[in-house]
User: Fold this.
Amino acid sequence: MYQLIYGSTATKDMTEADILQILETSRRNNGEKNITGLLLYKDGNFLQVLEGEKQLVKDLAVKIAKDERHRNMMIYVQREIEAREFSDWSMGFRNLNKFDVKSLDGYSPILEFSFMGQELKENPTYATAFINAFKNI
Ligand code: FAD
Assistant:
């Protein structure tokens, strides 16, 4: 089992309809490939975790990287995992623009960092902390 986490920047302001379209396609395709994960959106940036069979996850990341709806895709985490950590969704979604992260249990200041900011680039483990913070809300 393989896990990949990347960040990217939307090429335009994403409406709910734009995001829904991405999610519908993702859920259909990921369901067929037994890929699970979570997509976060905040201030025009995406952070996504993909989990599944290694080659399928890598191939999907290559396909997603070519999508013109976003750019500057930066892979933060690629690792073998013993078991899925995001098994509940073919693709879950959280719009962090609608969240007051300070109200979260276990709030940490890193949750206010930008997905594409210097902090995540310098410390990719923050990407894992981010994704995990929004897993169960
Ligand atoms: P199609 O059936 O040909 O396309 C699927 C739908 O996407 C169609 O309705 C099409 O109109 C629309 N579409 C495709 N490209 C664009 C575009 N550039 N602008 C507007 N609409 C477009 N795909 C997954 O399968 N799994 C994922 O987890 C996943 N995560 C994504 C995360 C992000 C942040 C983004 C931007 C895209 C993601 N995608 C994901 C979409 C992926 O990049 C491909 O568009 C999709 O996989 C193509 O699916 P398909 O081969 O079934 O193509």
Notes: Residues 101 and 107 are 7 Å apart (CA to CA). The mean pLDDT is 93. The helical segments are 16-33, 54-65, 118-122, 125-133. The pocket of flavin-adenine dinucleotide is lined by residues 8, 21-22, 25-26, 29-30, 39, 46, 48, 60, 63-64, 67-70, 91 (CB under 6 Å).
